[in-house]
Amino acid sequence: MNVTTERKMSGSNLPTPTIIGAEGSRVVRAGFIPLVDASVLIAAAEFGFAEREGLRLDLVRDVSWANVRDRLAFRQFDVAHMLSPMPVASMLGLGSNPSPTITPFSLGRGGNAITLSTRLFARMQSAASLADGAGAMAHARALAQVIAEMKAAGEAPLTLGMTYPFSSHNYEFRYWLAAGGIDPDTEVRLVVVPPPMTSDALAAGAIDGFCVGAPWNMVASERGVGRIVAAKQDIWPSAPEKVLAMRPEWAESRPETVSRLLVALDAAARWCDDPENHGDLAAVLADPRSIGAPVDIIRHVLSGEFSLDAHGNRRVIEKYFTFHAQYAGYPRPSHALWIYSQMIRWGQVAYSEEGMAAAARAYRPDLYRTALGADAAPIDDDFRIEGDRSGDSFMDGHVFDPRKLEEYVRQFPVASPRIDRQSRGPDFD
Amino acid sequence: MSAAELAILVIDENAIRASIIEEGLREAGHARVTVIHEVNGVARIIETLQPDVIIIDIENPNRDMMEHLFQLTRTVSRPIAMFVDRSDTASIEAAVDAGVSAYIVDGLRKERVKSILDMAVSRFNAFSRLQRELADARSALEERKLVERAKGILMKMRGLSEEEAFALLRQSAMNEKKKMADIAQSIVTAARLLL
Asked: Are residues B73 and B109 in the same domain?
């Protein structure tokens, strides 16, 4: 395994292409968090894709997104596995250490799910007489019913876990709750729980549910402590997930390294998509130095075979993970703006023209095209309308037009009351 | 920021290390130091304490929880993540290597915080050194025990004196370019298998 700083990749004594030499070291240090959506980075380091491009990818496992952000900002990492909202937040100056961060490559789609405690789910079943195969929307509405009951009975509000204030999990959990009619800011308590601790926290009753990436939902359902009630695909199939992040100045000073890295990651992503390679990939991911979860669970996760609970209720989610197909690696600026729209919706930032521009600057399709060629990029508009194609709609039927972002944010019946307060003045905060 | 005494919050799951840091801060004249070992209830503590500086172990995954807290509670004036001086790469590296991260209330004078962070870094390092020394001492003790047992086996099996047994062990270690403890380990294992 090549996931610690000490261990070097086998075969790293291959000749170094001279062109990289001009840009200094051919070693790229990459920080990552133990999640299945770090697959493309891990595969690139582990199965020779980086090496083929004359790079040595040194992976460093980290414990928190805050660490990953800081260590990228402070040049301890050259690149990093990051939540897609993190570069957007950085460009908007949000968070406790906003330092310019861009992404020229997306590490794939899918992987998240929402899991509730089995006890809470049983309550939803009886409150709403849920059918066995009920969908994400029915589950959200059933939860709303339980929450109303709890409020009436004077019970304490539910505590739900997610991973980071600027995370797909935060926005997806909120999207799902709000679609069911639940106000995520006033009717439940959202807290942050580190992904590897979610299953234990649920078992201990510290939280009543969580939204997190793979494999942690399945870990909880197989243990019998949780029931998966919605997958990312149910909320919005195209929803952005993890990205490859870097400092703009690093990218500018070593364009050849960036291009080679993207070529390596693109090849690795294609490899990760092929079910024939899932056995090898799962074995490497299961290693404690990358994720450290049972290899069987990771195999199931990769193929989208879900155990919804410990009673054998299963569901196969087509394309639960897409690493390469359908331009999964392309950093779509419309995604950056959708993330921005959710930040506004939940009162993290105010809408402004400058904010629009800053959010869009976080995504760099130009670097992607330079590295991989125009053929590797989709032909549709970078600021395309989202959620209007069949098989790619939002769970509540809304359609996102990046050009009408402000209008879009105001369409939602459930949103932060801060929206109105913020839009009046730019200097909230 | 006034020159009033700084309120410092130390979050460290390792109680021994936390007390070493606390002691260092107090020695440096900081009286308003609070130490907690777990993050449960940290929100309330931050609200009442209004810390100017928060020191947290970099290996603590709950840093992400802190980030969320700062987003929610706008009572604390905007905290910024660690490192006094962004351009000071050496001290950034020293902090990360030592395992220190910190949050500092925006606007605090750099010089006031730098000494605190430097102190935290050196105490973290001192703690790691202590742990390493302890581990070394433990393994030295283990090795000595192993050599004693191997010596005993050689004395019994080969009818050697204690000095001869020791000399034989040392010579074999030199010949094979191994540590004496490794040779001793193989003798003990072999004896267990063969006898």
From this structure: yes
